[in-house]
Design a protein that fits this description.
The complex is a heterodimer. By secondary structure, chain A is α+β, with helices and mostly antiparallel strands. Chain A has 2 helices and 4 strands; from the N terminus they run βαββαβ. Helix content of chain A is about 10%, strand content about 15%. Classes of the chains: A alpha+beta, B alpha/beta.
Chain lengths: ~100, ~375
């Protein structure tokens, strides 16, 4: 199921789990609007080692369809650029947002 | 069952041992240190099969037990004063994540100025974190309360703090019955929680929740606390059937015909019981209401017992500067909706571990006799 198909299905307090477990609220709360620098993956250089996925604190790295290559989820990436720092082959470069 | 002379700190350790805790993370602080010293020895020699996690602060200790509980392990920690204050942020997290962590807190006054002696302000200032709070009056109650805390916490998915006085309990040896492991196992089944981290059924936990649903989750925490009022007493009765000792929300003593009732917690309540006996011998109609469970706050019990009194005295070994005694404030709140409620005399005493003796408590009753109206704050024993 694609993320846009997820819906919040709760109607009353009784439908909810006791804690915020998979409430689906993150599908409507996009949290990347304050990103200043956008990490962009250069697929010519990327070796799909997944180190960016391991380090991303969000996590905003996923395997995209259909080629299952590493990609950045720009709805949630806040531009901390840890992936840029950690990439062993310098395959992630940045661009300023709003340019 | 065997009987041993142990300090209150070790009563916490034995409570954790008998509850078969699986993960312990703690950072030492006087007067709590002995609790985890003994637990670390038990882990080292194999008496207790638990993971002992050494951490660099109390914030990390609470974070580690939170993670352990979230992965389905029964987790325990203990601390005091500044250490508890450092855990504050994570205490809220544990409640919000609905994790049944149990911890010990040995009441110690806040610094500065440095003090290692007893005072309830450290735990009472965690009042609104959503943790259940049990105040023990003797070492037997400390041990038993740990077992009872897991039993109630794990059914409601709420954390519990078992609170005891520094030195008066933590470092004082008393005879304590150590229940048989088989009987504790019968009383306390293994921890089960379906809302845990599970790689086979991955979930997002605690994600950003907008105003549309946040309030409902807080409502559920409060409802669980309301359920705890009944469950604590129900499990208290089950415990009594197996072990012969009953623990409820409150512990009233000679209140039925009492004209003046003193409200107290922890070891000050034991002292007050002695004072009540001495005054009863003189024909004074006095009684004691010990509050054992501070959260959930037992409004109904307190209203029921105090509504018959002509005067209420509250002894607070704590201070909310600018307001007064924290327990007095709660008791006044409980009585406010009664049509004719008794006046409340709020005494601050024993801060920073200063002695509260039988003589002091008899003086409170004698002073109350002369006062017709309530008083918001009375400082007992301050050198003016």
């Amino acid at each position: 199921m694609g993320k846009d198909e997820k819906k919040i299905v709760f109607k009353t307090v009784h439908d909810l789990p006791p804690m915020a477990m998979s409430l689906g609220t993150m599908w409507v709360n996009k949290t990347a609007s304050w990103r200043n620098l956008k990490p962009i993956i250069d697929y010519e250089k990327c070796i799909d080692c997944m180190i960016c996925w391991k380090y991303c604190p969000e996590p905003a790295i996923f395997l995209r369809d259909p080629d299952e290559r590493v990609a950045v989820d720009y709805d949630y990436c806040k531009g901390c650029l840890i992936c840029v720092e950690e990439c062993p082959v310098d395959a992630i470069y940045t661009e300023e947002e709003g340019k | 069952m065997k009987r041993m002379a142990i300090v209150g700190n070790h009563a916490l350790s034995y409570g954790a041992l008998l509850s078969r805790v699986q993960v312990i993370a703690a950072y030492p602080i006087t007067p709590q240190t002995q609790v985890v010293e003994l637990l670390s020895e038990m882990c080292a020699d194999g008496t207790l099969k638990a993971e002992f996690v050494k951490v660099e602060s109390e914030h990390s200790a609470m974070a580690a037990v939170m993670g352990a509980s979230a992965s389905g392990a029964r987790a325990f920690t203990a601390t005091s004063s500044q250490g508890l204050a450092l855990m504050h942020e994570v205490l809220h997290w544990v409640t919000g994540a609905r994790l049944p962590v149990v911890m010990g807190n040995i009441n110690r006054a806040f610094g500065p100025p440095w003090s290692i002696w007893t005072e309830q302000t450290d735990s009472l200032s965690q009042r609104d974190t959503g943790w259940m709070q049990i105040y023990a009056q003797d070492n037997q109650e400390v041990l038993d309360s740990v077992i009872l805390a897991y039993k109630v916490s794990e059914q409601l998915l709420l954390p519990t703090m078992v609170v005891l006085d520094a030195f008066f309990l933590s470092h004082t040896s008393e005879p304590v019955e150590i229940p048989d492991q088989e009987k504790v196992d019968e009383f306390l089944p293994p921890y089960e929680n379906k809302y845990i981290l599970n790689p086979d059924a991955p979930h997002a936990f605690g994600g950003l929740t907008n105003p549309e649903w946040y309030m409902e989750l807080r409502y559920k925490i409060h409802k669980a606390h309301e359920e705890a009022l009944d469950l604590i007493e129900k499990e208290g009765r089950e415990f009594e059937k197996m072990f012969g000792r009953y623990y409820g929300l409150v512990d009233p003593y000679k209140v039925d015909d009492a004209e003046t009732v003193l409200v107290a917690v922890s070891t000050a309540a034991s002292t007050a019981r002695h004072a009540v006996d001495l005054l009863r011998e003189k024909g004074k109609k006095v009684g004691l209401l010990r509050i054992r469970v501070f959260r959930p706050f037992p409004y109904a019990k307190i209203k029921e017992i105090l509504s018959n009194a002509r005067k209420v005295i509250v002894l607070d070994r704590n201070l909310s500067p600018g307001a007064g005694g924290i327990i007095a404030s709660e008791v006044r709140g409980a009585l406010a909706n009664l049509r004719n409620h008794p006046p409340v005399l709020s005494y601050i005493m024993g801060l920073g571990g200063r002695d509260i003796t039988t003589k002091h408590i008899m003086e409170l009753f004698e002073e109350a006799e002369k006062m017709e109206e309530g008083k918001d704050i009375i400082w007992k024993g301050v050198k003016l």
